Every structure is written in structure tokens, then in C-alpha cells.
């Protein structure tokens, strides 16, 4: 290897090769692949949300025990996170420390469709959502990144005009001839 020139040495002093900023890239790629996320910004946003939740949790935990607002704030935060579906139970603040980007990815519409066994893979679910076959409640959803809260998780269905819905009804012998 040749000897580095002065300006090259000076530039290399400013770069830390041990703690490179893109080290999280491998973990982020795994999440992108596992949950079939097409936009890397979504994972970055989920990471940012998780960090903000950790900060809020730390601030609540740092309040004195005799402060009456501590339990109220903790209960509100845990209630909100539980309603979003990010934590399984709203019992202690330690639950909010375990929130990661994957916690938010598990509440995406495509993943919820796989959990409810509407489709077999997340990729299939993403394609069907983008094609307009899925609705949540009464609204048509065409974004696979739609965050499904606990109350909305029971309202995921096929649209009325969807061919998949017709096939499911035919298979279950529940198709109404009046609708046709």
C-alpha cells in the first residue's frame, strides 16, 4: 500500500471506521425483507418513533415517585401504546422500553392480513392492498404501510367488488345470488 498524502491523512482522521454510521444497514435490510417494506424511510421513521417513546419513558421514569402525575402519565402512555397494538399488555413501563421498529412493522396492514390468514405471505398481501382489494372498516386502503390499531384489526375485509371476496364466498357456499 502506498503512503497516504497529507490531505488524505487529514481526511481519514475525521472518519471513524470503527463506529460507521451505516452499521445499522444490515439490520434495516433484514426488516425490509422480512416485512416486504418497499421504502427504507418507513423503517427509519419507525426507529425514530421507537426512540421518541424511549425518551418519553425515560422522562416519566425520572419523575419522583411522590409526583401524582407520574402514574397518570405512565398510564396514558401505556394505554396509547396498547391501543396502537405495539405492546401486548399495559402493565409496566418496561414494556415501552422493548418497543422497536419491528413492533410497528408487525402492525402494518399487510402483516395483519397474514396474521388473520387472509393470505399466505406478506408480499401477496402487499400486492392485493396496492391493487385495491382490501378495506379497513368502510374505507378502501391502498397503502400496505397503513398502521392497524387494535380496534381496527377486526374490521379488515375484502372490498365488495373484489374477485377474491367472490371466490371466498363461493368456496364457503355463502354467496348471495341477489348480489350478482
Automatic annotation (TrEMBL):
Alphabetized SMART domains for the sequence: Ribosomal_S4
Statement: the UniProt record of this protein carries the keyword RNA-binding: yes
Small ribosomal subunit protein uS4 N-terminal domain location: 3-106
Entry keyword Zinc-finger: no
One protein family per Pfam: S4
Principal location: nucleus
Keywords of the record: Nucleus, Ribonucleoprotein, Ribosome biogenesis, RNA-binding
Subcellular localization: Nucleus, Nucleolus
A GO CC annotation given for this chain: small-subunit processome
Stored CDD domains: S4 (cd00165)
GO biological process per UniProt: ribosomal small subunit biogenesis; rRNA processing
InterPro entries xrefs: Ribosomal_uS4, Ribosomal_uS4_N, S4_RNA-bd, S4_RNA-bd_sf
PROSITE patterns found in the cross-reference section: S4
UniProt similarity note: Belongs to the universal ribosomal protein uS4 family.
Annotated protein name in UniProt: U3 small nucleolar ribonucleoprotein protein IMP3
Organism: Acrobeloides nanus
Amino acid at each position: 500500500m502506498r503512503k497516504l498524502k497529507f490531505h488524505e491523512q487529514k481526511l481519514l482522521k475525521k472518519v471513524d471506521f470503527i463506529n460507521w454510521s451505516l452499521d445499522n444497514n444490515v439490520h434495516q435490510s433484514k426488516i425490509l425483507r422480512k416485512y416486504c417494506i418497499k421504502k427504507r424511510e418507513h423503517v427509519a421513521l419507525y426507529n425514530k418513533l421507537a426512540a421518541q417513546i424511549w425518551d418519553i419513558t425515560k422522562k416519566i421514569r425520572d419523575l419522583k415517585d411522590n409526583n401524582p402525575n407520574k402514574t397518570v402519565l405512565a398510564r396514558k402512555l401505556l394505554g396509547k401504546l396498547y391501543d396502537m397494538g405495539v405492546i401486548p399488555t399495559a402493565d409496566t413501563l418496561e414494556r415501552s422500553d422493548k418497543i422497536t421498529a419491528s413492533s410497528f412493522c408487525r402492525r402494518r396492514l399487510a402483516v395483519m392480513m397474514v396474521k388473520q390468514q387472509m393470505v399466505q405471505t406478506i408480499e401477496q398481501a402487499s400486492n392485493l392492498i396496492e391493487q385495491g382489494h382490501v378495506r379497513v372498516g368502510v374505507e378502501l386502503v391502498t397503502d400496505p404501510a397503513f398502521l392497524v390499531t387494535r380496534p381496527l384489526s377486526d374490521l379488515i375485509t375484502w372490498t365488495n367488488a373484489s374477485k377474491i371476496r367472490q371466490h371466498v364466498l363461493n368456496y364457503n357456499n355463502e354467496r348471495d345470488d341477489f348480489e350478482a
